[in-house]
Amino acid sequence: MNLDFSAEEKEFQQEVRQFLQQKLPKNISSKIKKGLHLLKEEYVQWQQILHKQGWAGVNWPVEHGGTGWTSTQKYIFDNECAQAGAPDVIPFGLKMVAPVIYTFGNEEQKQRFLPDILASKVWWCQGYSETGAGSDLAGLKTTAVRDGDEYIVNGTKTWTTLGQHADWIFCLVRTGPPSAKNQEAISFLLINMHDPKITVSPIITIDGSHEVNEVHFDEVRVPANNLIGAEGQGWTYAKVLLTHERTGIARVAPSKDRLIQLKQLAETSDDGNSKLMDDPIFAQKVANLEIDLLALEYTELRTLSAISTGKAPGPESSILKIVGTQIIQGIDELYVEAAAYYSMPYVPQQFEEGFDGQHIGPDTAANSALTFFNNRKTSIYGGSNEIQTNIISKAVLGL
Ligand SMILES: Cc1cc2nc3c(=O)[nH]c(=O)nc-3n(C[C@H](O)[C@H](O)[C@H](O)COP(=O)(O)OP(=O)(O)OC[C@H]3O[C@@H](n4cnc5c(N)ncnc54)[C@H](O)[C@@H]3O)c2cc1C
Q1: Is the CB of 364 under 6 A from ligand 1?
Q2: pLDDT digits (tens, 9 = 90+) for 188-240
Q3: How far is the CA of 381 from the centre of ligand 1 (A)?
Q4: What DSSP element (H or E) covers 248?
Q5: How many structural domains compose the chain?
Q6: For position 159, which CATH number holds?
Q7: Between 351 and 287, whose confidence is greater?
Q8: Residue 117 lies in a domain
Q9: Same-domain pairing of 85 and 135
């Protein structure tokens, strides 16, 4: 792909910039720039604004309401959004289950689910992991037993991100014999979270946030026409979804913006004299991250380019995941270093709207320790970085 923008691409960049200036709510962008958490309603509000503009299904095929953008346009869009302080879209519907439904679902399922996902009328969550079945996902134990036109589902999913808000969950379930630990026994099932036999219990993370949950299924009856594709083929569909998930986790554009803010923080001085950025060791750490980020950006562009030709991202998504999350955590470390004692106070409420306690120090410093802790998750979720290394050694290096 050519990165010298053509006249049309520059025009597109202006269009995106203007759209963001006019349509991105200021209360949302200001929260994103300060590292505050958004409410469910704010995510939905932004996604519905994107939908109204026709820009919600960035990677979707045009026939299902996708943008039809080239990889350069996607690159421009991501960068403009990050600079303007637009939130990432919640990936579970638009970026994760949708590609599975439009690739492997039947016509009835496409019509039933895709329009509501595109319009962000429903909130989805991901039900893969279980206790003892994270890295070894094929060891999952949640069962779905066929009974006439229904499946009866029993089991517990864990680490379910934002499941407390969800209307639907896409689940990997065991439809084969309970003894079988092979991947042919796994199926991909869509389950309505409003079923009274489903309970959701919170898991509070190290930064005090409620982001993840356990989801319990107790004799939940699910219509058999919520099964995607064929019984026993869930593993194949799940792998396609995971490559999309890992590509998104790299978060190149937001990292670029955070690096700019980090440099601004390190350029400020408490005593009017010394600045952290003048310290050659700190400056070198920033430079190293910047170089890694630039290299990652090109890898992401190559992947985006492949996606726009209709290919699912391959093992390169594992490379994006590892390096992208290392960079996120590297920026976190330097933020804490730059914020110094301003990063220390533990005030979980400061992530919430309405918090009127005083931040100590600059705005971008105030949440740096909590963000540091929160982002430890990035090298674990979506398949841990150690597992990604295994995938690369097998799929790329042939070991
Ligand atoms: C914040 C957060 C949000 C999440 N959100 C979701 C979600 O929405 N939906 C969902 O389904 N899941 C979610 N997950 C689960 C996530 O995918 C798993 O945590 C992850 O796959 C790791 O599994 P595990 O926690 O069972 O760790 P384990 O598999 O027990 O691994 C423990 C450690 O051993 C290492 N390890 C394990 N096997 C190997 C191996 N073969 N080679 C080398 N090292 C190995 C791992 O890298 C890790 O460091 C989330 C996790 C977190 C932390």
Answers
A1: no
A2: 999 999 999 999 999 999 888 899 999 999 999 999 999 999 999 999 998 87
A3: 6
A4: helix 234-249
A5: 3
A6: 2.40.110.10
A7: 287
A8: no
A9: no
